Amino acid sequence: METFKPHPLSINRTKFIAFLQHELVDCFLFLFSMDKLHFSGERSSMVAIMLLLGVLMADAQIGVCYGTNGDNLPSRQDVVALYNQNGIQRMRLYDPDQQALQALGGSNIELILGILNPKLQTLASSQAEADTWVQNNVKNFGNVKIKYIAVGNEVDPSDTSTAQFLGTAMQTVHPPSVNAGLGSQIKVSTAISTGLLGNPFPPSQGSFRPEIRPSFIDPIISFLVTNGSPLLLNLYPYFSYADKNNNIHLDYALFTSSSVVVTDGSLQYQNLFDAMLDTVYSALEQANGGTLEIVVSESGWPTAGGTDMTVDNAKIYNNNLIQHVKGGTPKKPGKAIETYIFAMFDENQKTGDEVKRHWGLFSPDKQLKYPVTFN
Question: What is the model's pLDDT at position 182?
Fold first, then answer.
């Protein structure tokens, strides 16, 4: 297996890009003010800076999910160093692991911080409980760049032990973040799966299951719209492909189709990822959530455990995904898609189907399982 060796400059790449983005924004604002004062000669410089800034921002769309359900994984400090060495600028963490949060301090890595489903009832039961959670896991880590708090992950609407508490938990976690002056920096959301869709095809006709709308999905959408938060979506073309009832070709799932596969009115789809994402956008429009943005909080391809789960297919999918999300979908063209690859490591202590243990980009020895270009 080929061993990945990061370029020496990639170690400080995250800090350099953040610095350059900041400086370019300042330059843009200055030149814009000059333009308003009729210094028209500066316009070409301003356009060039806008284009360069756009390239850099698109370059920063990829994050990687960090799960810790393994007994052979590197230390939290080594994992954060691995993110920086490979220019990975965003992380999803599924629970407030204190060692991981400490390791992230001052790293400049943006974070989705998760709240596990069993915790939802406690947070929903008391504002004081939510205040304490925010104090212990957010305010106490002021040097960690928390971007989103994911309240629950793929909560099942039929699971009465969690579903009835999700909306209230989101509402109780939000105020202490705002009261701490973090409301504009940290957005509260939840991560859903495409399993909530009732009509998944064609993309323009996407809709949520009608029986879950009044009590489950509509309150979530209302909260997100009111607070300007994105919807987090776990999106897996692999599972749609693996379900042979869908009759989906492998090249359509791997971004390698040489031609349009699905035509939906004026929109044409050459890959399954775009079709699935636009289906959820259509479903949001039908549920009064047309203004919401979607962050793809999980996507990836397994390397073992079932149909077409190979290292080669995972390499193709994830490398193509990284490049593809810079450009948007047919429904949202030109709009980069913030996306998190699942996952950083295989997790050998996960229970259930074998496939759950084989999504990692890296081996426990911190070497890439296959070549990946993260930017």
Answer: 76
